[in-house]
Amino acid sequence: MGIDDETLADLARFRESPRFDEVEKLALELADAMTATPAAVTDELRDALLGHLGRAQYVELASTIAWENHRARLNRALGVESSGYSDGAYCVLPHRSE
To answer: In 10 A of CB 25, how many CB atoms?
Structure first.
């Protein structure tokens, strides 16, 4: 995929980062909105993404986000831990808004 460490480090501030283009920022907004509890995807966000993506692309993006969210939550519920496949690799911790 080819994402450098600096771009990964900017994920926590993607809204302000020049490393992400408009569509990438909207996709990350969608991921944030879909993984919130409760999920909160606005019509404006959906329409903004549909202005850049076709309906099928939007469905694929939303499905991928939903699937990854499902896997993360299932792994947590089952107590699945890291298997060490990426030990030593760069890992960005999620931003916590409290």
So the answer is: 16
Residue with tokens 């460490």: 5
**Opening angle at CA 58, ends 97 and 17, nearest 5:** 40
Token representation of residue 77: 């519920």
Main-chain dihedrals φ then ψ at residue 64, nearest 5 degrees: -65, -45
pTM of the predicted protein model: 0.80
What radius of gyration do the chain's Cα atoms show? 15
The C-alpha atoms of residue 71 and residue 47 are separated, in whole angstroms, by 27
Length of the chain: 98
- Indicate the burial class of 81 (C-beta count within 10 angstroms; 0-12, 13-18, 19 or more): exposed
pLDDT band at 85 (very low <50, low <70, confident <90, very high): low
pLDDT at 1: 55
